[in-house]
Design goal:
By secondary structure, this protein is of the alpha/beta class. The chain has one domain: Rossmann fold, CATH 3.40.50.620. Helix content is 56%, strand content 7%. It has 14 helices and 4 strands. Strands 3-2-1-4 form a 4-stranded parallel sheet, sandwiched between helices. Strand 2, helix 3 and strand 3 form a beta-alpha-beta unit. Helix 2 runs parallel beside helix 3 and helix 2 crosses helix 8. It is globular, with a radius of gyration of 19 Å. The termini are far apart.
Amino acid sequence: MIGNDLQQEIAQRVEFIRCVLRNANAQGIVFGNSGGKDSALTGILCKMACENTLGVIMPCQSKQNFLQDKQDAEALAKQFGIATKIVDLTQTKQSIVDAFGMELSQTASSNIAPRLRMTTLYAIAANENRIVAGTGNRCEAYMGYFTKWGDGAFDFNPIADLTVSEIYALLTFLNAPQTIINKAPSAGLFDGQTDEKEMGVSYRTIEKYLRGEEVSECEKEIIERYHKQSVHKREQILLCDFLTKQNK
């Protein structure tokens, strides 16, 4: 939880990023600039910590990706001097879907985009000796509202412990573009998609639950169901090592 001194809060996170960068012996940072609140704060903090920060805009089929999201991402990059690269993944995703030769569920199809985006970020990182910054917040992590090996993959995450309201507070303090602060949180997986509508519960309610405050039984059931079903996303990779133990 952030304190009252937002300037000190930002300074500590910037120093954390610089420490990660030094330890990795990397020359820069790359992050997915989606035009959303989380990526905006991550991008600003990374730019404050490292001049060589690259934000990659990666539209993938959804019209929102090409319109509002792209405009907001570009506005953020311009205001904070963040270098930008645009990689259109629409055809790549369609090629993968076509290769299946079968109809995919909306969930299966939607998860392709985040994984393609992470593949793109790691290709750039490997090519340019950068590290990949994560953009997920505390509420999303608790709910498991992220794609495994997609936006759930990164080298470090400077906002992982922040709730959505704390992210908005820091973005407001940093004078981020109002269009980003005001629009409904969305992963932009498909047209019309918003986080809260898809989860069936608001971020405000999730935060109340995490603070131990009272929420309705219906809201509690949704939150606990999401958390329980997504345990595997937050655990370390399961490795079979019984043969190693037998040979010792």
